[in-house]
Amino acid sequence: MRPSTHCSAQDSAPAAIASFQAITTAEFDALFEQLVAGDFQARWDLAKQFPDLGKVAIAPLIWQLHYGDLDTEARWFIIRILGKFNQPAVVAAIAKLMVQTDETELSEIAASTLAEMGPTAVAALTDLLDQPEQRPLAARALAKIRSVSTIEPLLKIAVDPEPALRSLAIEALGSFHDPRVTPILLGALADPDSQPQREAVAALGRRPDLLPRYDLLAALTPCLANPNLPVSTAAAVSIGRLGSRDSSQTGSKAAVQVLGESLLHPARSESLQVAAVRALGWIEHSLALDYLSRVLTKDLDLAESAIAVRCEAVGALSQFTQPELQAAAAADLLNYLEQPAFREQPLVLKQAVVLGLARLNATQAADSLIRHLDETEPRLRLHIIAALRQLVPQTAPQRLRQQLQQPDLSAKLKAGLEDGLKFW
What we know:
Layout: H1 15-18, H2 26-37, H3 40-47, H4 58-67, H5 72-82, H6 88-100, H7 104-117, H8 119-128, H9 135-144, H10 151-157, H11 163-173, H12 181-188, H13 194-205, H14 216-220, H15 229-245, H16 249-264, H17 270-282, H18 286-296, H19 307-317, H20 323-338, H21 347-359, H22 366-371, H23 378-391, H24 396-404, H25 411-421
């Protein structure tokens, strides 16, 4: 049986809800039961009638929103209905649900409803900031309402003594292209806590529009040396994003140099090296290609176990889009494939190189790939055959047969060539 639609001061509801005068009108009861039982269209039509009941409907709707045995869709409609009552208690109730629910759909409709309520909702939540027990709730709610009217209170929260609240505000402010926000983001790079720092670093990486006016590269570069790994890796990502969006070759090259120097630094962690390599792959510049190639040729002081860095470098090399860079990347991967040391590499790295050559349409690698069919690992053979089918689908069978006719074939290569022919 569903809970009664009535509520009273004795119900187990917060004081803010219980303080409303309970209602028992048959009109409300009938409407609510239809709302609960109806399909989407019926609920849509019924929702338009609740505001006609006036403020007397607010208390039971709030109670049902938080404590009723309702499905997600019914709660969704209650939020929409409550949004028609521009009252502080409604704002608080919707804000509470928005920050406490695990259901994305409810959180999103709550945020959009509060945004539609406009200045009243923002003013009510801003007033709650002055109440210590309500401040975290109000701050989280304001951070989710992406409306220009929230910028002013968010700017105040951005200097809150509590790091978690500063972090919320900075993350939210990062979505606004407002001149008041930029100094806050830049200042947060020196925040004593790493969480607001990381949010500021990430936000600035999404603001290439600021490049003509601010030296964001100079501001973000020190963050690469931050001992907090989330901050330093976020800095690598942001520098890569800005470098890829910088319209000037000078700016792109400067970003590459900063990332490359970080990659060369012996004290950098493997996670940061992976982030730097990935970021270099976003910047279409010959110098970026040079750094990525050096990862494979072991010019860098990388540990032998740093396979993740090398795999990331292979993936980055295979994603260049400019023809001249693609050709150079293909040549570098082919050179790596042909080195004797390549055969000693882990399977995951070998597979990455084969896949990278296929992505780059490196048809010149076909003969070298065929010679690597002597690999005993079945998965690598399958990768090589798939690459041949992509690179030279018409001539691969003939090449395989010609190779089979060569004298002094090893048993492993013969088996690999015969396996390859089975796919044609």
